[in-house]
Structure formats: C-alpha cells, structure tokens
Amino acid sequence: MANLIVNLDRRLSHINPEVYGNFSEHLGHCIYDGIYVGENSAIPNVNGMRSDIVAALKAIHLPVLRWPGGCFADSYHWQDGIGPRQTRKRMVNTHWGGVVEDNSFGTHEFFEFCRQVGCEPYVNGNLGSGTVREMSEWIEYMTFDGLSPMSQLRQANGQAGPWHLKYFGIGNENWGCGGNMRPSYYADVYRRYQTYVRSYGDHQIYKIACGPNSDDYAWTEEVMKLAGNYMDGLSLHYYTVNGDWEHKGPATGFSKADWYKTLKNTLHMEELIRGHLAIMDRYDPQHKVDLIVDEWGTWYEVEPGTNPGFLYQQNTTRDALVAAINYNIFNKYSDRIPMTNLAQLVNVLQALILTDGEQMVLTPTYYVVDLYQHHQGADLLESMVDTRLVGQEANVQVPDLSESASVSEDGTVNITLANLAADRAAAVQVQLTGQSAAAYTLTEARILKGDRDCLDLHNSFTQPQAVRPADYAAQVKAAQPGQFSLQLPAASVLLLRFSQAQEG
Ligand code: AHR
To answer: In the predicted model, is pLDDT for residue 243 greater than 90?
Structure first.
C-alpha cells in the first residue's frame, strides 16, 4: 500500500493559471483548419474561429496561448498579416512543409481568438530575421493607446483601442532555427531588441528571452550572465522523445519498453528544471527572472501518409501520462515557473484536439488538462507519495506514482495522481494531515483509465470516445477521518477533490 500524504497546513506557492498554457504555431493544420476556417466556411464559426474548438478550450479554461511560433516566429513579418485579407502578402513557410502561407490569420485574428476563448495572448517576436524597428512597431501597434502612426494603422484596420498584451517573447530557439546564434551573441542582440520593446503607459510587457534547448546549461549560463538583468522570464524547451531524434518511434503501436522509455524521458524534465534554476540562481539570487517552459510535449514520427513537415501525430494514454507527470512537476516548481506552453494546441505534436474537416476529437491529453484545471490559481500543498520502481522487465526503471496537490480559493483540496505502471494497479492510502484534516470529505473523483492490454488506447474520428474521464467516487473508500483508500488502475490518471463538510 502506497501512502499519499497531503499536508493541508503547508501552502508552498501559488500555481499561476498560465502553468496550463498552450502553443499555436503556423505549422501544419494548427492554425488553418484547426483554429481558423474563415468566415465563409461551412464549419460553424464566429469571425472565422471554429466554434467547437473555442467551446472545448473554454471548458478547460485555457489561460494563455503562445503564437505565431516556434521557428515560424523568426521568419514572420507581422505587417504582412494585417489589413484586407485579399491583399495580404503571401510567404513560403520554409520551416514547416514549404507551403504557401496566405497570412489570413494575423495579429487581429489572434487577438480575436484569444478574446473568444478568454485567454491571455503570448506573442513571440521575430529576432532572427526581423528588424528592431519591426519588433518595436509591433508592440506600438498592439499596445499604444495614444495617437501614433502604428495606433492609427491599427485603427484603420478596425481595432480602435489597444489590446491587452502581457507576454512577449524576443526570439525563439535562436540557438537553432532562430538564427543559429551563439549564446553571447544572442545575449547582446537580445539586449538591443528588448530595449525597444516599450511598455506604454500602464501597459507592462513581460519580456521572455530565448533560453536553453534541453540540457544546454552553457546557454543558460552565458545568457543569464550577459542579459539576465534585462528579462522577466527565460524560456526552456524540452520535448519528450522516445529514443533519439532519428528514431522517434510511432505515436501508436509501440511496445511496453517504449511506454517506459517515454515516461522516463518525461521525468527528466525535473532534472532540467533544477539544473537551469541552479544556474539562474547564481546570477539572480533574488529570483527576479522566472523560468518559462514554453515548449514541451511528446514528439513522435508523423502519422503515415501525412506531410512530414506538419508534425501530425496521434495521442494515446501514454501522452496522457506524459502530461500528468509534467504538470505534477510544474505544480511543484510553481514558485519559479509561472507559465508553461504545451506544444501544440490542435493537430500538431502533443495536441489537445485533432480535427478532420468538420469533425473534432478530444485527445487523452485534453482530458488530463481537464482534470488538472482545478490546480489553476490554487496554492500548492506539501505532498509526497511512496513509490516503487516499475519497468524493469523493459530494462527501464521509473517510480510508479506521480502526484501533486493544491488548495483552491474556496478551500477545496485537489489531488492529481498518476500510475505510470503499464500493467500493475497500485493500492493507495490518501492521508490528509493538518489541523482540520478530519473534517474533509470526498466531493469528486474522476479517472482517465488506460488499458493494460492496449497501451495505445486513443480517440479517433471513428471512435472519438474510446478514452475519457469517468466517475471514480464509488471506488474511493473513507477509511477513517482524513483517510481514504483506493486502487489506482495501471496506466491511469486520477483527480480527487475534498471539501470540508458543511455544518448543519
Ligand atoms: O513545436 C514545433 C517546433 O519545435 C517549434 O517551432 C520550435 O520552436 C521547436 O523546435
């Protein structure tokens, strides 16, 4: 029996809602057909934005969305994406499939999508191939409230007032697709560009610098040393790849060994976070600079027959476990990580949603975000769980359980717990401790259950509901005050919620 202990008297940090953010790039069918179909589409839409997608994202309270890339951001020229659509300049999307981008989804459309969903926009600027002036004018266009050439241009294009923009990224992966720069060079260029990213009036821009790729600690060291005083956040990109980049393996039809390898590689996230934070701490002992994990998720081979440049992959309960593990880690580091962005929103990599024409499928990853949404804006509670190692039969060792706990503003306690074991249930005893622990009763239990005989359980357009959360309350037994026991099935993710019993 594994003990899961949650101390209700120890609030450790606030979990910023943006920890549950996402990412949308001009890549494959993320924007076009995914988010945006245009006003004249037969697919139900409001101002061109798919109504089914907007409703699905509202249901999980998507807090923030990054756009327009990714690698695309450093070849994107925002002025090509404003004004009458029929006259917008076309460009070749050289990073992603070499397709022609007609720029019909631009700044106005992005803010409109965020408005409909009710999320914060996070815009990523072009440092790789754009000019300082271009970046500076984009900020003016989006956020300046007075009379200026850019605000007048915005008004002429139909947006009277400025938009609210908090997060702005200054370059993306500038160690690679964003210019192949060395860290000291990027640090200097970053310092220059960020100078002209003005905060107009009360409008404070939170500046995010390009951070390391995975375990490139030298990048973090140099950029923090030379430019740490000029940023609010440093981004980290880490994708879960099963095997190496040359042999990523398929999203479905994988072995038990692949299951465990993928989960082990996911757990590596914590080591990366610790390693980069330790370096950041040396240059920023007061923790003024946050770590922003603005790209993470699984990256497999594309689905057979699809454009290799579109990064379209299926999404199984293995991806659900990847999301659950990462979110439990992010919750635990929420004192230093105020935002993360899963890659990506629709039809790309570890997508929340897949579309095919007018059809839409919610993936197992979507349902994990659904279960975890109660952590948004809650306070992290001290928690721990006993674990045992699993995966030895596949020559991999991972702890079987992953957990985190929080308390919402209304006092409800949220626990999320994942069983990484491919084929073994875990007996768990949940123990709430603290002064009033005995007064708490279970108010909700929902589970996303995998299948030990079908590790790649997933939703498809023919079987859209093969995997979805189910009620699990009847399986949670109250043992004694503040103590509950349950069996957590193999390959599953569980949400438990407890509240203080109402008097009278
Ligand atoms: O998310 C896909 C790509 O992965 C992004 O464009 C890039 O930043 C990263 O390499």
So the answer is: no
Domain boundaries along the sequence of the chain: 2-9+380-500, 10-379
Instruction: Indicate the CATH number for domain 10-379.
Output: 3.20.20.80
Mean pLDDT of the chain: 97
Average pLDDT of 329-348?
98
Give the contacts of 75 (CB within 8 A, at least 6 positions apart).
91, 93, 94, 95, 126, 128, 129
Residues of the chain with pLDDT > 70, as a percent, come to 99
Q: Could you give the 3-state DSSP secondary structure of residue 23?
A: strand
Going by pLDDT thresholds of 50, 70 and 90, the confidence category of residue 503 is low
How close is the Cα of 241 to the center of ligand 1, in Å? Answer: 13
The structure tokens 């306690």 sit at 413
Cα of 172 from ligand 1 centre, angstroms: 9
Relative to beta strand 483-488, strand 426-433 is antiparallel
pLDDT in tens, 31-78: 999 999 999 999 999 999 999 999 999 999 999 999 999 999 999 999
211 CB within 6 A, ligand 1: no
Q: Averaged over 102-129, what is the pLDDT?
A: 98
Q: What is the pLDDT of residue 452?
A: 87
- Kindly tell me if the per-residue pLDDT of 504 is higher than 90: no
- Assigned token pair, 312: 């379209």
**Which of left, alpha, beta for 334 (phi over 0: left; psi -120 to 50: alpha)?**
alpha
Residues annotated as catalytic are 173, 295
Residue 49 identity: M
CB 50 within 8 A of CB 7: no
For ligand 1, say whether the CB of 172 is within 6 Å of any of its atoms.
yes
Mean pLDDT of 144-168: 97
Q: Which CATH number does 2-9+380-500 carry?
A: 2.60.40.1180
| Spacing, Cα 177 to ligand 1 middle (Å) | 9
Nearest to 498 by CA among 436, 437, 412: 412
Q: Ligand 1 pocket check: which of 23, 295, 311, 346 to mutate, most ligand atoms within 8 Å of Cβ?
A: 295
Separation between Cα atoms, residue 266 and residue 431, nearest integer Å: 27
* Helix (H) or strand (E) segment spanning residue 497: strand 492-500
Closest ligand 1 atom number to CA of residue 297 = 1
**Paired sense of beta strands 477-480 and 483-488, if any:** antiparallel
Burial 193-205 (b: 16+ CB within 10 A, else e): bbeebeebeebeb
Residue 25 CA to ligand 1 centre (angstroms): 8
pLDDT digits (tens, 9 = 90+) for 148-158: 999 999 999 99
- Average pLDDT of the segment spanning 283-300: 98
Identify residue 442 by its one-letter amino acid code: L
Beta bridge partners, 469, equal: none
Looking at the CA of residue 349, tell me the nearest atom of ligand 1: 1
